[in-house]
Structure formats: C-alpha cells, structure tokens
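User: Can you help me understand a structure? I only have the sequence.
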Amino acid sequence: MKRDLKVVAVRHPMPYGNLVEQKVQRYATIDDLAKHKCTIEEMEEYEPHIVRGNVIYAGVDYEAILRDAEKDPDGCDVVIWDGGNNDFSFYKPDLTITVVDPHRPGHEVSYYPGEVNLRLADVVVINKIETAKPEDIQTVRENIAALNPKAVVIDGASPIRVDRPDLIRGKRVLVVEDGPTLTHGEMKIGAGVVAARKYGAAEEVDPRPYTVGRLTETFNIYPGIGKLLPAMGYGEEQLRDLEKTINNTDCDSVIIGTPIDLNRIIKINKPTTRVYYDLQEIGDPTLETVLDEFIARRLKK
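Assistant: Let's start by predicting it. Here is the structure, written out as tokens:
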C-alpha cells in the first residue's frame, strides 16, 4: 500500500447547537472538542480519530465540508466518510466498507440505515467474532450472503486491553459504556463488560440505586439497560448528573468502556481504568490487502 497518503475523515452530522456555527467544523487536536462545544456522543466519535493523528471534518453543510476537506491545510489524498451507525455516505464513495456486529444478529437487515449500508457494501467486516455465539455469527453470514453476495467478507476480532487490570481483578466495579450503544443501540454488553469478565471482577455493581437527575430519566426510558451506566452527556446538566452518579455509586473502581477519557471532562472520585480495543483480522482477506488492491486500481486511472 502507498503508505504516505494523507487521509482526512468526514463524520456524519451531529448538530446539537447553533447550526450556523456548525456549518463546517475541523478537529485536529483534543482542544478542538471544547472549542466546538462537543457532547460526549460527539467526543466518542471524534476523539479516537484525533488521538491517532487524523484530521476530522464535521458540521451540517456537506458540500462546504467536502470542499474544505479536499483543500485541508495539512493535505488530503483520501477522504473517508465515517458514518457511524446513523447514516450511509452523503457522497458517492469509490469503496464502501460496512461493519456488522454478531452480538446483534439480524440488526443488519432489520434496521435503517443498517440494511442500506449492508446492501451498498463492497467489503463487509464481521467483527467481535471471538466473543459472539457461533449461531449468531452464522446468522450474520447468511444475511450477508442473501443481501449482498458479491461483497468481500472479512472476519475480525476485537481483542481488548486495559491500562490497570489490578483495578478489576477481585474488585467491585462500576461499568460505564457509551450511551447510544445501551439506549437506542439496545446492547446489553459492551467493551467494559467484556473487560470486567476477562480480568476477573468480583462484581459488576448496579448503578440504578445511585442515579440522579437526567440519568434516572434515562433508565426510566430504557429499562433494558440493566446494570450498566450509559455515559450520557448532552449538555452540562447531563455531565454533572453522570459525575454525581459515578461518585455516588458504592464500588471499588470504575471501568471506562467508552472511546473517550471521561476523566478529562468530569471528576471521578474513584480509581478508573480504560478499555481499548482494535480490529484483529482473522485469516484472509484482510483490510490491508483489500485497500492495497483498491489504491493500486485508483492510481492506474
């Protein structure tokens, strides 16, 4: 692969404030998250890119965003539309990669726009294979074959690591996961739960007796969340409620399963450990070989 290509990522829109001010946003440093008054959900989408050295564009005017990205001051050879779970690309892509989750078998054909993304995909990555049930993986494979038999399928795992395993083993832990995954994402398990069980937590503490304010409302609206704490933060009130709930909870330590460093935006009065995970491809093909072939074809044009 041509390794010196300069990549700029464009995220799907998440307008929660002044739409005029959010016409075009550029994120190149962590400080830019505060500059643009990001919610926790926005941080969860942007921060992982920033810490890897990628420049991110977002906002509400996607014609203007694309033109600015193409002439980014740091250079731009490739524009990546990173749509998360909420959108398909607003631009016509040269290559479409869709990730499907065998922990949610069937969602890839029963949710919008998930099914659209699956049908459009040139490449489909089946992720989290190492922790999913074989029958659920097979369900996803069959759905891919039925809806998009021409797609290249890549098998992948999401091995996790934590920075302080000693804060989990034998401890009573509070597990904090990213909010949308637990609410409208309908998940009952996330990276934090996987870490708690992998590293031998004595107990996953139920936060519901300790919730305050807007977080109490969240549990009333989404009772299926169970013993996990969603990192809700759409404004200062929810951030303060999240901080109070964590600090109220009777536990030994906190597992942060969100993609961001919560300690940067709230003050937690207990020891914390963060969970990290990356894609680990299983067998062939791999994303590297797929991208090598794609870039080689494009360079010939």
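Now, to help you interpret it: Residues 94-159+278-301 form a domain with the Rossmann fold fold (CATH 3.40.50.300). The first helix runs from residue 31 to 35. Let me know which part you'd like to focus on.
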